[in-house]
Specification:
Blueprint (H helix, E strand, L loop, with lengths): L3 H4 L10 E7 L3 E6 L2 E10 L5 H19 L8 E8 L2 H13 L4 H6 L6 E8 L3 E2 L7 H19 L2 E3 L6 E3 L5 E3 L3 E3 L11 H11 L2 E2 L2 E2 H4 L3
Antiparallel strand pairs: 1-2, 2-3, 3-5, 4-5, 6-8, 7-10, 8-9, 11-12
Length: 220
Amino acid sequence: MINIDSIRPIANDIMNYLGDYYASGEFGVVFERKGFPEWLVKIVNLDAEDDENLINQEQALFIDEVFKVGNNGSLPTIIYFKEFELTEMIKKHISNVILRNDAPRALQVLNMEIGDLMAVWIMEKLEHIGEDADLTNEENAIKVGQAAANIFEDYGYIVEDLHNQNYGQTNDGRFVILDPKIVTEPPNEVFLMDNEQLVKWFVENKVWMRDGKASLAIGN
């Protein structure tokens, strides 16, 4: 069994644990954990001057809470979270890693300026991203909906943007939400729902399969 403490950084300096570029999304960039490529490092900019600002702030607030209080199993395992101010040295280091891996778009995603408040966390790399090919659309959608419902029940956050790049399965087969986008003003009706109703609500309103929205795909 791997010792998690050996993966978790001892120093806060990001240059000590940032590995190769792995992927980028609309709002954040993911790298491998240096020396432990089966773990991923995600970096987001909390000072961007557009809608990305609020999206990243809300996600970072959520991830920080999960890191502090413990993971309910509906997200990848998170072993490290830190906010930091972007210095010239760290900016150059991040940029060099990105450009060395020929991923210039990632620089646009991070939109880094000296002095920006950034957030970084380390999470497990999933065994598989997207739907489980051995399950039907309905079975996949329900498993994603269950993960989202559990997040709401345990942490009070409604997550959305649940398309096939933002959920997947861990090594032990759990369905988890990989890149949660937080709904800042949840609809009042969700506070009156039990777990079964919540799962149905997520499936009908927030979960997407590869070939269309879950509510339209179920039963096909």
